[in-house]
């Protein structure tokens, strides 16, 4: 049984694919595109807000790393979200999208002095990662209060989920203050005692692959620490709990599983008082808001056989599906096959590999899948790729970033597209590969009048 939401998503996706081929958005001149279902994104935001509705004030932020495309961030701002940023680039993207500073949370694990100064001066909420960073903020504030909320990230060390690289609460994780290490809790309480401006705790327990009870257990540890700090200090100093993101996504179907409502039910069972309104809650969901609304679509360039295996060569590989290609067991994707007119393909199936354009043998987005027989000119779609796929480009083989389009389908089935990101031009690829310094290395060679310190312009440029 599939839910109405899943049904709508599938119907809209198929309509958009057909129309993209009809309109030539996907074709020989642009054989790879990303598509984003605008109504799907809005439905996810809505489900999130409804699930957390209650007495506790909640600020929902979107984790920009999941999809830092500016029009997407703008849409989310319009829908009432805040934005969690973890690098100067993400911060600039969020500001360009129109997020006001009071709706931002800055979380980078490697914030520079300059970045901290910016956040502190503009009242952007920050979560500090470790005791050295706390000391750095002490020096920057020199007695002044911070303009915005300041939190401390803690690692409840509750253990790993199914994917090691996605598990942030292992005993040796690089994130936050490791709470179960000897003396850590006492040190955190002491840190709050000495800093009245420190008023939040932050725990992002893990992402894809982390079971809900594990996440809930980590949030419970952060909640209990907040209670301990406030009780010990005899004042309500911790006023906010940032519970991170990490709701896993079902990459095996069109369903939203688990739902935000199921997550909140799990949290209510594990930490009943979390929602009583004494703490402002902050969330930082990424993947679960965007993944199921995104599709990567590529033309099939060639089909062939090798050692008895059928292979379809497409333009979507490691550059847009990096995790899937390098960790295929952890990040399998569903594949859809469409004919040259962009209509879902029926008919006899065959077992095949779906390959990308990158020059290494492992560049496969699916292996040994039974799919409708594919011919050159058909379209292969990779589903659930709205987060961390086309928005997290890997520039292997100097492959350009593909265009991304948002779409809406009205009641009559009419598809409207909006550009989200233009395809990167080859000129831009060359420019970002150092074209401005084309002669710089040759100029270092003997006989080119540019030994260090000879004062020539080239050497000045090369050593600048
Ligand atoms: C990546 C990240 C998130 C978002 O995780 P999702 O699994 O995409 O929901 C939230 N908070 C922090 C600190 C993160 O690093």
Q: What would the average pLDDT be, to the nearest integer? A: 95
Strand content: 15-25%
Overall radius of gyration: 25 Å
- Would you state the CATH class of the domain at 108-285? Alpha Beta
* Small molecules bound in the structure, each named once: pyridoxal-5'-phosphate
Judged by helices, strands and strand pairing, the structural class is alpha/beta
The main pleated sheet reads as:
9 strands, mixed
The 3D shape can be described as globular
What keyword list fits this structure?
single chain; 464 residues; alpha/beta; TIM Barrel; nine-stranded mixed sheet; eight-stranded parallel beta barrel; 13 helices; 18 strands; 22% strand; globular; disordered C terminus; binds pyridoxal-5'-phosphate; Diaminopimelate decarboxylase; Orn/DAP/Arg_de-COase
Concise summary:
The protein has 464 residues and is an alpha/beta fold.
Q: What would you say this structure looks like, in words?
A:
The protein is an alpha/beta fold and 464 residues long. It has a domain at 108-285: TIM Barrel (Alpha-Beta Barrel). It contains 13 helices and 18 strands. It has helices spanning 4-22, 38-52, 70-78, 88-96, 113-122, 131-141, 184-194, 212-233, 260-270, 287-290, 322-326, 426-431, 457-463; strands at 32-37, 58-63, 82-85, 104-106, 125-128, 150-155, 177-178, 198-202, 240-242, 280-285, 294-306, 309-314, 335-338, 349-355, 364-372, 379-383, 403-409, 415-421. It is globular. It starts with a helix and ends with a helix. Residues 454-464 have low confidence and may be disordered. The structure holds pyridoxal-5'-phosphate. Residues 63, 65-66, 84, 86, 107, 204, 207, 244-247, 284-288 line the site of pyridoxal-5'-phosphate. This is Diaminopimelate decarboxylase. InterPro entries: Ala_racemase/Decarboxylase_C, DAP_deCOOHase_LysA, De-COase2_CS, De-COase2_N, De-COase2_pyr-phos_BS, Orn/DAP/Arg_de-COase, PLP-binding_barrel. The active site is at residue 359. Residues 43-290 form the Orn/DAP/Arg decarboxylase 2 N-terminal domain.
């Amino acid at each position: 049984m599939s839910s109405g939401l899943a049904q709508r998503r599938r119907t809209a996706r198929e309509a958009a694919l057909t129309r993209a081929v009809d309109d030539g958005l996907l074709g020989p001149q642009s054989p790879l595109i990303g598509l984003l279902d605008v109504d799907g994104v809005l439905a996810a935001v809505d489900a999130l807000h409804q699930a957390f509705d209650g007495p506790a004030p909640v600020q929902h932020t979107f984790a920009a790393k999941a999809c830092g495309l500016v029009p997407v961030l703008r849409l989310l701002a319009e829908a009432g979200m805040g934005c969690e940023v973890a690098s100067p680039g993400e911060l600039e993207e969020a500001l360009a999208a129109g997020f006001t500073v009071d709706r931002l949370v800055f979380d980078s694990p490697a914030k520079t002095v300059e970045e901290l100064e910016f956040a502190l001066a503009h009242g952007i909420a920050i979560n500090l990662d470790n005791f050295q960073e706390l000391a750095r903020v002490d020096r920057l504030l020199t007695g002044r209060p911070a303009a915005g909320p300041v939190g401390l990230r803690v690692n409840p060390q509750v253990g790993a989920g199914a994917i090691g690289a996605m598990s942030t609460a292992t005993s040796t994780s690089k994130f936050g203050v490791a709470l179960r290490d000897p003396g850590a809790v006492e040190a955190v309480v002491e840190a709050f005692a000495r800093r009245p401006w420190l008023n939040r705790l932050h725990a992002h327990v893990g992402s894809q692959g982390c079971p809900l009870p594990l996440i809930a257990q980590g949030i419970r540890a952060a909640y209990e620490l907040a209670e301990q700090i406030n009780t010990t200090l005899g004042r309500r100093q911790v006023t906010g709990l940032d519970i991170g993101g990490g709701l896993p996504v079902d990459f095996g179907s069109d369903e939203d599983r688990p739902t935000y409502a199921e997550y909140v039910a799990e949290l209510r069972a594990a930490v009943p008082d979390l929602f009583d309104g004494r703490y402002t809650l902050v969330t930082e969901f990424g993947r679960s808001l965007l993944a199921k609304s995104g599709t990567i679509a590529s033309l099939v360039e060639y089909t062939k056989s090798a050692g008895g295996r059928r292979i379809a060569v497409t333009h979507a590989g490691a550059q847009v599906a990096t995790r899937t290609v390098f960790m295929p067991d952890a990040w399998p994707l569903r594949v859809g096959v469409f004919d040259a007119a962009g209509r879902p393909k029926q008919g006899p199936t065959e077992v095949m590999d779906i390959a990308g354009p990158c020059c290494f043998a492992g560049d496969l987005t699916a292996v040994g899948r039974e799919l409708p027989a594919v011919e050159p000119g058909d379209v292969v779609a990779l589903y659930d790729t709205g987060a961390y796929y086309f928005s997290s480009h890997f520039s292997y083989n100097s492959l350009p970033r593909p265009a991304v389009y948002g779409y809406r389908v009205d009641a009559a089935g009419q598809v409207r597209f909006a550009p989200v990101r233009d395809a990167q031009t080859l000129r831009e690829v060359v420019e970002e590969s150092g074209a401005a310094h084309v002669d710089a290395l040759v100029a270092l060679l003997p006989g080119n009048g540019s030994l260090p310190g000879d004062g020539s312009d080239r050497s000045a440029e090369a050593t600048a």
